[in-house]
Amino acid sequence: MKLFLKAFLVMLISFKIMAQEPVLILQSKVLEKVHLSNNTLKINAQEVLMAKGDYNQTNAVLLPNIKVSYSGIETTSPLMAFGSKLNQGILVASDFNPIVLNDPEKVRDFITKIEVQQPILNFDGMHQRKAAKAKLQATTLQSQRTKEYLDLEVVKAYMQLQLAYKTVDVLEKAAKAALENKRLATNALKQGYLQKADVLAVDVRVLDVQNKLQNARSEIGNASNELSLLMNDTSGVIYKPADSLVVAASKEMPLKLSGERADFKALTYATKARKEQLKAANMAFLPRLNAFWTFELHDPKIFKGRSNGYLIGAQISWDILQGSKRFGERTKSKAAFEKATLEKQAYLAKSQIALNKANRMLTNAKNSLRLSALALEQSKESLRIRTNRFKQGLEKTTDLLASETQYSQKQLAYYATVFKHNYALAYVAFLTK
Question: Which domain holds residue 115?
């Protein structure tokens, strides 16, 4: 009775999970949706835009700074009153009367002012601009590498979904065979050929397969959720791969890393950015040359322009000493450059080790695939022989159950090995891209 209740509960849960109609999907379609909707890629795109914004800010090193202002004043200050009248071009002889000069009447002045500052020589600014450009290139390449990594994650998640369906298929066949053996065992018990203990052993086998089948169906949901997460899909759809899990075609893989990998090039540009920042810190000790031009309109009435004038010139400025600030910036920039250089070397060495490990993993997977295929054929033939003998009453129930268990295990092991082999191929391809 307990076995019946457990079996019924398992079947009820399985029905609830599988009640949702699976949606067929291809790996290529998953990749399209990931490239379009994945949150990580969207975040990376914003990081690229931020780096581009930083680079655009350095245009100030080349382009002029233009400022326009409009102001109005009212004053009785002797100096300001005289100057305002002078700027407006309304001075008369009586304005030079000492009494008027010392105690002027209130004067209004409305001023339109245009100021232009044009950098000519800004050595540290030019290197800061180069650093910002290198950072933009590094961020763009790192975003590209993230996209390649997500492609690998899609391949892995899609194959996990394929493996889950293969597992369900194997266990469904095992459950069908177990139920058939239960029918035969029950008939044999009625005829006195078997004992009740043998039938109970078959019942246990049926329940065990059904439990494993339920777990396998749950894995379909888990794998579907992984794909949904990559595609930024919150609908909770259960997916079904349009193609089956088969051994991927093997090819010769390189043993050394390619210098054209996006993340390696990104590290090169990141190191270059640090180097340019160090140069900028050194160039900050040099003077700067800027040109300037000012144009003004003055009038005692608002929104008028009675008198105008301009000022043009150039300025060399040299901050000889700012305490220890620049020395500290130089030390920090040098340390950052050395750190970036060391990090690049460490990353390259670690990546080569990862490739060596991945190639060994691929070799082991190929060997395991051959052995697993052979073991599967042997267990299949053994089960066929024992099943025929059991139907003829020449085989023990325990031996038949052992063969069934071994065959289903070999099938599951074979497909798990196919998954490992295919993923190892994809991973090596990712590392050598």
Answer: 2-431
Instruction: Provide φ and ψ at 311, rounded to 5°.
Output: -140, 130
pLDDT at 4 over 50: no
Please, which residues bridge with residue 110 across strands?
72, 299
The pLDDT tens digits for 212-244 are 899 999 999 999 999 999 999 988 899 999 999
Span 30-42, pLDDT tens digits: 999 999 999 999 9
Residue found by looking up tokens 């060399």 in the block: 316
Query: Does the pLDDT value for residue 69 go beyond 90?
Result: yes
Q: What's the CATH code of the domain at 176?
A: 1.20.1600.10
Mean pLDDT across the stretch 305-323?
A: 86
Number of structural domains found in the chain: 1
| Contact (Cβ atoms closer than 8 angstroms) between residue 400 and residue 345 | no
Mean pLDDT of the chain: 88
- Give CA–CA dist 7/203, Å, rounded: 10
Q: Both tokens of residue 164?
A: 């889950």
Q: What one-letter code names the amino acid at 336?
A: A
The residues near 147 (Cβ < 8 Å, ≥ 6 apart) are 35, 41, 44
Q: Please tell me the distance from the alpha carbon of residue 165 to that of residue 391, in angstroms, as a whole number.
A: 31
pLDDT digits (tens, 9 = 90+) for 369-379: 999 999 999 98
What global pTM score does this model have?
A: 0.83
For the chain, how many residues are written? 433
Distances from the Cα of 189 to the Cα of 193, 211, 387, angstroms: 6, 25, 17
How far from 323 is each of 124, 320, 326, CA to CA, in Å?
18, 9, 8
The pLDDT, as a whole number, for residue 193 is: 66
> What pLDDT was estimated at residue 1?
45
Crossing angle (nearest 10°) for helices 196-231 and 27-37: 40
Distance from C-alpha of 244 to C-alpha of 165, rounded to nearest angstrom: 9
Contacts 24+ apart (CB under 8 A), 39-43: 39/232, 40/146, 40/150, 41/143, 41/146, 41/147, 41/150
Contacting residues for 343 by C-beta, under 8 A, at least 6 apart:
267
